[in-house]
Amino acid sequence: MPTASDILKQYFGYDRFRPGQGELVDAILSGRDTLGIMPTGAGKSVCYQVPALLLPGLTLVISPLISLMKDQVGALIEAGVPAACVNSAMSAESMHDVLALAAQGGYKLLYVAPERLTAPAFLAFARRVPVSMVTVDEAHCISQWGQDFRPSYLKILDFLAALPARPRVSAFTATATAAVRDDIVRALGLRDPFVLTTGFDRPNLYFAVERPSSKPNALLRLLAARAGKSGIVYCATRKAVDDVCDLLLAKNLPATRYHAGLSAEERQANQDAFLYDTKPIMVATNAFGMGIDKSNVSFVIHYNMPKDMESYYQEAGRAGRDGEPADCILLYSPQDVQTAQFLIEHSREAGEDADPQARQAQLARDYERLRCMTAYAVTTDCLRQYILRYFGEDAPRPCGHCGNCDADFEPVDATMDARKVLSCVYRLDERGLHFGQVVVAAVLTGGKSEQIKKFRLDTLSTYGIMRGQTAAGVRRLIDALLARDCLRADPARYNALFLTAAGNALMRGRDTFVIQMPRAKKPARGDARTPPAENEALFERLRALRASLAQQAHVPPYVIFSNATLADMAARQPDSHAALLAVRGVGEAKARRYGDAFLEAIRAYRRGQA
Ligand code: ADP
Ligand code: ZN
Fold first, then answer.
1. Residue nearest to atom 5 of ligand 1 (CA)
2. Are 519 and 409 in contact (CB under 8 A)?
3. Residue nearest to atom 24 of ligand 1 (CA)
4. Which of 50, 63, 293, 586 to mutate to test the pocket of ligand 1 (most atoms within 8 A of CB)?
5. At what angle do helices 238-250 and 215-224 cross, to 10 degrees?
6. DSSP notation for 368-389
7. Once rounded to an integer, what is the mean pLDDT over residues 246-262?
8. Whose CA is nearest to atom 6 of ligand 1?
9. Residue partners of 412: CB distance under 8 A and separation at least 6
10. 75-84, 107-116, 262-271, 517-526, range with the lowest pLDDT
C-alpha cells in the first residue's frame, strides 16, 4: 500500500508536503471531516487529490466554475490521474457516458457543479456508487457573509443527507474570516471537523505600493522592466480595462483583456490567449481570475485599488503560484477610494429589498473594509506585516522584503504640520462645514478655488498657514492622519473629514506625530532583478520545447511543467529517467510522456557546450 508521500511523488512529482498539507491529508485519511483554509497558491488541490487516490471509492469534488473544473481535470489527466467532470455545458449523452464509466470505477475524482447535485439522474448515480469523500472547493461560497455567495451551495447539505452512507466531507477555501469559517462548518454540517488554517504569508511574493503622478507611465515602466513575463493588470472598471489594454496594444505589448462586458466567446478566446502565453499580459476587472490556476504569473499590478484587503490579497495571490519570486504592485491614487465607494454603493442592488437595517450594517462593514484597504495603500510600515495582521496572524517583525521595508524612509516629526491640519478641520467644523481632503489641503496652502470663495474659507484663521507646501504634500499628510485614525472620512458625505478622539488629543498637544518620509528613490527590487544567468540558455530551450509540446497536446504550457520545474531541471541537468524523477514537479506519468523529449533537449544542449 503506497503512502500519501508516495502518491505525492508518483503523480505530482513533489518530494514533500508543504506546511499544512500533510496534516490535512492525514486527517482526511483517518476519516475525519476537514476544513482547510489556505491562501491562494498554497496548494489546496493536492490535499484532497492525494487522499482521493488512496481511498477505495470515488471522490466527488464540488466546484463553482466550469473553467475551474476543466483546468483541474486537465491537469489531473496529464498527471495520470483518472478524473472527469460533469457540468451543464455537456450534452446529455456525454454526461451519461461519464457517469456510466464512473459507476464502473473508471475515475477516482469526479468534479461536479453544485447545481447538478440535486438533479434526479445525478442523485440516482451518487446513491448507487461508493462515494468515499465529498470535497467542497471554494467553500466560502456557502457563506452569505462572504463576497461570493452562491445559493446553490446550500444544496450540498441536502445532497449529503440523500446518500445511503454519509461520506467524509472536506472543504477548502482561501478566504475565511472567523465568521465565514463558522458559517462553512454550520452550513455544510461538518462533524467535529479538523480545521487547519495555514499561514497567510507567501514569502515569494514581493509587495509594493506606488503613488505615481501618472499611472499610465508608471504601468509602462513596470511592464518594460518585466518584458517577456506573464502577469495580470487589474482595473476597477470595464472602461479602465479597455483604456489600459488599448494603451498597451498601442505600445505593441502582448496584452489582452477580460471583463463582463465582452461576449462569452471573446472572454474565452482572450483567457486562452493568456493561459497559453500567446498574450502573456491580461488586463482585467475582478471578474477575471477565480479558477485561473496559471502557475507562471510573475506579477499582478493593480491599476486601481480594490475595495477590500480580501479582494486585494486574493487577486495579488494569483502571482507566483509556482513558488518563483513574483511582484504584487498597487498603483494608488486617492481617486481610487471614490471609485471603490461607488462600487460598494452599487454592488448591493440585489439586496435592495433586504431589510434596511441589515443593508445599513452591510454598508458599514464594507466601508470599514475599504478604510483598511486605504490604510494599506498609504502606510509606510511593512506591507507584509500589515497584510498578515489584517488576517489575524502574528507578525512581530517587519519582513525586510517589501516595498516599504526596502524604501529608504526616514522618520520625520510632523507634529506641528499635523496640528495645523487638524485645527483646520476643527475650525471648519465650528462653522458647521465639512469638506474632503482636496478642499482642506487647498485652504491650508492658501488656494483660491471656487469653494474657497463661495464659503469664504479665506477668512478662517487656518487659511494659508501651510503656504509654501504643495497641496499634494498636505494630502499625503492627511492620508497618514486617516491611516492612524486621527481623522475619519465619512463615505456617506463625499468623504468629508471629521476629527476623532485621537486627532483631538494630537491637536491639543498631548501626542507627537512621526511619519516616515522617503529619503531617496531606489529602483524597486523587481526592476533590477537579473535572470539566473548560468542556466538561462538551457532554461530557454526547455521552455521552447514545453511550448511546442503544449501546442501538440492542446494544453497550456504550465500544465506540462511549471517554470519552477524547468528551472530545477536546467540546474540539475538530469541524464536519465531516474534523475529526471528527482526534479521538483516531475511525476511518473509526465516523465513517461515527456521525459525522452526533455532528456534529449538536455543532451543536445550539453553536446553544444562541450
Ligand atoms: P491553491 O488551489 O491553493 O491556490 P494549487 O493547488 O493550485 O493552489 O497549488 C499551487 C501550486 O503549488 C501548483 O503549481 C501546485 O502544483 C504546487 N504545489 C502543491 N503542493 C506542492 C508541494 N507539496 N510541493 C511543491 N509544489 C506544490
Ligand atoms: Zn516588509
1. 43
2. yes
3. 14
4. 293
5. 50
6. HHHHHHHHHHH--S-HHHHHHH
7. 97
8. 43
9. 514, 515, 516, 517
10. 517-526
CA–CA distance, 358 with 235 (Å, rounded to integer)? 29
Q: Of all protein residues, whose CA lies closest to atom 17 belonging to ligand 1?
A: 43
- pLDDT of amino acid 463: 95
User: Is the distance from CB of 77 to CB of 49 less than 8 angstroms?
Assistant: no
Which of 6, 16, 24, 45 is the pocket-test mutation for ligand 1 (most atoms within 8 Å of CB)?
45
Ligand 2 center to residue 41 CA distance, Å? 20
* CA 585 / ligand 2 centre spacing (Å): 30
Q: Specify the pLDDT at position 40.
A: 79
Report the pLDDT value the prediction gives residue 47, as an integer from 0 to 100.
97
pLDDT in tens, 13-70: 988 888 789 889 999 999 999 999 988 778 899 999 999 999 999 999 999 888 888 8
Cα 460 to middle of ligand 2, angstroms = 41
Are 303 and 240 in contact by the 8 Å Cβ rule? The answer is: yes
Per-residue pLDDT reduced to its tens digit, 273-308:
999 999 999 999 998 987 677 888 999 999 999 999
- 351 pLDDT exceeds 60? no
> Above 80 in pLDDT, residue 220?
yes
Residue 380, pLDDT score: 86
Residue 461's CB is within 10 A of a number of other CB atoms, namely 9
Q: Among the atoms of ligand 1, which is closest to the Cα of residue 44? A: 3
Q: How far is CA 309 from CA 241, 387, 399, 486, in A?
A: 21, 8, 18, 21
What distance in angstroms lies between residue 137's CA and the mean position of ligand 1's atoms?
A: 14
Residue nearest (by alpha carbon) to ligand 1 atom 20: 43
Nearest CA to ligand 1 atom 15: 43
How far apart (Å, rounded) are the C-alpha atoms in residues 185 and 515?
43
Task: Please report the pLDDT score of residue 530 as a whole number.
Answer: 41
493 CA from centroid of ligand 1 (Å):
45
What percentage of the chain has pLDDT greater than the value 70?
95
Dump strand ranges (E) for 285-348: 297-302, 326-331
Q: Which atom from ligand 1 is nearest to the alpha carbon of 18? A: 23
Q: Closest residue (by CA) to atom 23 of ligand 1?
A: 17
pLDDT at 532: 54
Percentage of residues in the chain having pLDDT higher than 90? 60
Buried-state track 56-91, b at ≥16 Cβ within 10 A, e below 16: eebbbbbbbbbbbbbbbbbbbebbbbebbbbbeeee
Report which bound ligand comes closest to the CA of 12: 1
Residue 523 pLDDT: 45
Q: Residues near ligand 1 with C-beta < 6 Å? A: 14, 17-18, 21, 38, 40-46, 293, 295, 321-322, 562
Instruction: Give pLDDT, residue 352.
Output: 54
